[in-house]
Every structure is written in C-alpha cells, then in structure tokens.
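debug: dumping io for the single-chain case to check the tokenizer round-trip. Nothing else runs in this session.
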Amino acid sequence: MDIITRSALIYQAEVLEPRRIADAIATHLKEMGHRVELFTANAIPEDLELNGYDGVIFGSALDDGEYAPRIEALIGARHRELQHMPAAFFSVSLSNYDDAEALRAESLACIERLIIETDFNPAIFASFTAEPPVSIRGFIKQMGMEPLGRRMEGEIGFDIADEDDYDTVEGADVEAFVEGFLGQIAAMVGRPGESASRPSPPL
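debug: decoded output
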C-alpha cells in the first residue's frame, strides 16, 4: 500500500506463545516500512487513544476455551472505538488436539463468544497453534470488502457465524495475517473519519 500506517498491537505478555506471535507481527510490519507500537495487556496507558491509530491488533492465548481475561476486558471496554476502525485479533491455541477440526471448532466458538459478549467485530482474525510462527493447522478468516464497508458505515448486527461475510485461508502465518490487516486499512482510505497516515516518502 502507498501509505505508512501506524498500528497498536496489544497482547498477552505473560504467556510465551502470543508474545512470540506479536513480536513476529511487529517485525513484519516494520520490515514493510510501517509503524507499530506494542502494549502488554496489563500495562495499557490510561490515556491511550485507539482512534489515533490506523488500526489495532489484539492477541491472546486460547487456553482451555478461554482468552486472557485482561484482553477480553480491554476489548469490551473499548468496543465503541473499535467498531469503526480496522481491527484484528489473533489467538494461539495451547490445546493438544491432534484433530485440526477440533482446533478450528474451539477457535470459532471462542471468537464468536467474544463478539457476542463484547460487540467486537474484528475484520480479520487468525488462529495459530503453539508452533510459531507458522502452523498448517491454523487458519485465517478475513471479512470481505462489502461487509467491511457495511461495518465501517455503522451497520450493526454482524454475526461471525455468517460464513458469506468471510474469506477463509487455510493455514495461518504471520505474513498473510499482516497483509490481510493492511488490506483492511487500505479499504478505509478515503472514508470519513479515517486517521491521517502520511504518504510514503519518494524513493
């Protein structure tokens, strides 16, 4: 994309796996020339304004069917800010399922619960397993451009169970997740209320 974006990445730091994924995401964004600020879920500045960023990413372990309570609390408290900006979510399953479908079912059930309980509608989410940074057993779901537009324009009632609103990529890797996230930001260019990212400098 032809702008330099500024993103916030908020993650669960006390567990190794999401910390590794967060570091890999931040590294890839920086390598692409974008700016990213990392925050641990337990040390968020009280005056942090998420709407000052072009997009925000949340990351948590998924342990025994639960995300980190602090991540869920933050999302719930900030859901109004998140509703009209590009937002992404990744989880790292710590379950020892041998069956990829069981991993998928657990991840889908948990993200759907998070949406219902917090009104958080991530445009893209990824399910990783505990072998960072790449897992062929994971997956990425990305909202299509039309439903993304409806969401950004304030339409409510979005249900993650509606598969027609999402494109699914089998296998989860950091590069695909980052590119999908940047694509969501690019889709916002020219929309009212977008944050002012500066153009890329000429080469």
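debug: round-trip ok. DSSP finds six helices and seven strands in the chain.
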